[in-house]
Amino acid sequence: MSGMEGNKYRSYLHGEGELNTNWRYGGPPNYDIVNKLFEDERTKVWPPGSLEEKVQNLVKSWEMEIFHKASLEVFKTIDVNKYTFSLNGIKKEKKRKTRS
Length: 100
Fold this sequence. Notes:
Pathogen-related_defense
């Protein structure tokens, strides 16, 4: 993944590609404390570049986008044209119905 400037676990948080991002809470989140807790408490450190490390960082990047970016159209961790959402067995919804 590209766009790792400023956060070693989350892509697409800082950098030129995020200059026009509309953030839900006025700006990109600060994960310094969360990253410190993660590093202190984790039980496994994945080898750099391993599939496990890539999945770990992808999930953290996806979580950041879902909760902090205001528009699906600027997401980079999912294909917004194919994205659907289902919760507790309810019928899958397309992107327009899943975001407010």
